[in-house]
Amino acid sequence: MIEMKMHFFLRPTPVEAVPRLAAALGIPPDGLFFKRDDLMGLAGGGNKVRKLEIMMADAVRRGARVLVTTGAQQSNHARLTAAAGARLGMHVILVLAGERPEKLTGNLLLDQILGAEFVFAGTSDTETIAAELATERDAFRIPFGGTNALSAEAYRQAGVELLEQVPDLGSVTVAVGSGGTMAGLVAAIGAERVRGVDSGALKDARAAVARLIDEMGFASGALRIDEEQVGAGYEYLTEAAREAIDLTARMEGIILDPTYTGRAMAGLISAARHHRLPEGTAVFLHTGGLPGLFGNEQIQS
Ligand SMILES: *Cc1c(COP(=O)(O)O)cnc(C)c1O
Questions:
Q1: Cα 159 to chain center, whole Å?
Q2: For residue 78, which of 40, 39, 41, 106 has the smallest C-alpha distance?
């Protein structure tokens, strides 16, 4: 029998200099790097791949045949759960907020290509529906954003990986959604050098990240989270994110997404302009999300 392929990407993910973007932000050309967690071998890549490796190993151990998870319509996590399920031969049910749109775009199109089953929650609570389906269909439940204290370990390991690649790390900037990515990084690197940028996915990102770090058995310390980039709310594109996407594309030929990495870069730009970046090499964690760009009507107009 062919062994199940439980490694979803090649590690370490690359770290590369972005000298033209650095210059545009008033940072020395060798002072700013991207860690490319958007470059991974599973359906478009992104930070959920690391977390899913751990979650899927757990699902396999428990003999799961069906998976269920929740998300927004353009959820990168839902798309990557569909991909991970496909790779392991499991059926994937995605419980997504709102009504089924006429046309499947962005992540939704990829979900369908990957063979996932859609359940559109309408105005009902996606988590309630997922809990019911988990019982009815004997499905293994993957939490919102693929985040819990178990899977956040993936980003503790990524933090260790980053410190090996960038020993003089001054700061790493990361978007915060469900909080698992930031929590894991803080566990490895400490609160001082991890700069979270809140996307507005949760009501209280700070509390969620602190709780995860605590559940992992680490001390959270004083978390650095920029709450200024949420704007009108998670689902709304901000002017600062649009500018950050354009600047990064035009300086480096690298594409960010409107929900997470666009906001995170807007936070980094603001910190650089206000001279609030700590000494040492600045790293931007590119957490993926490109398909979301093709499912976002606001950026298309
Ligand atoms: C989910 C996501 C994040 C946030 O990660 P969390 O671990 O949920 O905080 C950041 N960037 C992208 C592109 C994402 O899809």
A1: 14
A2: 106
- The residues annotated as belonging to the active site are 75
pTM of the predicted model over 0.85: yes
User: What amino acid is encoded at 254 in this protein?
Assistant: I
User: Mind listing the domains of the chain with CATH numbers?
Assistant: 15-45+148-300 (3.40.50.1100), 48-146 (3.40.50.1100)
- Ligand 1 atom having least distance to the Cα of 175: 10
| Contact predicate 174/185, CB 8 Å | yes
The token pair that represents 191 in the structure block: 């609160």
Residue 105 tokens read as 């775009």
Do 226 and 270 meet the contact criterion of CB atoms below 8 Å apart? yes
Does residue 176's CB lie within 6 angstroms of at least one atom of ligand 1? yes
Task: Give the tens place of pLDDT for each residue, 160-207.
Answer: 999 999 999 999 999 999 999 999 999 999 999 999 999 999 999 999
Sign of the CA dihedral with 224 first, then 289, 48, and 207 last: positive
Enumerate residue ranges in the chain where pLDDT < 50.
Answer: 1-2
CA–CA gap between residue 63 and residue 59 (Å, rounded): 6
pLDDT in tens, 31-41: 999 999 999 98
